[in-house]
């Protein structure tokens, strides 16, 4: 049995794509006879407050599904203040250093990035000729931060680029969730060993029953983080509600603004349902005609994991994010696309969708595509020989 450690900033009971991705990776490796340990902060995302069962702990270690999980102290915050966010990352980095000093670290370590600073701390402390460091990149920072408007090209941006360069240089293997990420890494280090590791989900597929033909409005659902990058608040403002209903599930920084907007515009057909567990959400999503996957701006390297999750559910998608994600929707015929940032085009695309045509035959076709092309276990089996 081979020891392997995963270092991540997000892990259940936290919700979201990053948490799910790292949990499935840990669980998958454990099933393939790896002895898996995970280092992660005390759970606090997305509220910015340590979850109730973990408050008052400097460190919490448990074994869950035969996976050892070390939860370390962090100064938790979901503030938009850059200084507070930096303090949060530094606090987790210091906790990691302390952990490394007093614990035996396996020879194979998977490090999640971003956050860049956490990945940098891990690589700086753990690099050794006897140890294999695997960098798992889900988003390209600082490029993504520039596109989102969170960063500006100044001294701090240049410093982050140096950290990014250091991380790539000293990683023995780079896993990227998109072709664009791997292209970026190899543009800097042409001989770097890389592997395309998509964010494929791993759950039992639901049965798709015959859906009654819709006679009313097109029922569109968004489920996930209500953050700046997703732009759900602006989406609420820009959609044409003549022939649609918008249903929203999730939580995040824009939640209060969205709830206030709905309260102040009772004439618009928008319903906010709050937050559900992933298992509950999977059942609820199937009653809608289609889901929308938006990004406020096209982010190079980003491919929302929702694409693969919803395809497995057999849920048609309306993609509004551009880039590689748009190409995947088109290639596999998973739904419709609208030009990123063009709300006029988005409303035009929606107006041409006939709810009565979104039936079980199309849904089953999407699900079959997912089973044939987005298989978590098949991908993991290809990755394991490289670990």
TrEMBL record:
Pfam families associated with the record: Glyco_trans_1_4 (PF13692)
Keywords, sorted A to Z: Membrane, Transmembrane, Transmembrane helix
InterPro entries, per the entry: Glycosyltransferase_grp1
Segments passing through the bilayer: 83-102, 108-126
Organism: Flaviramulus aquimarinus
Transmembrane helix is among the record's keywords: yes
Species classification: Bacteria, Pseudomonadati, Bacteroidota, Flavobacteriia, Flavobacteriales
Protein name: Glycosyltransferase family 4 protein
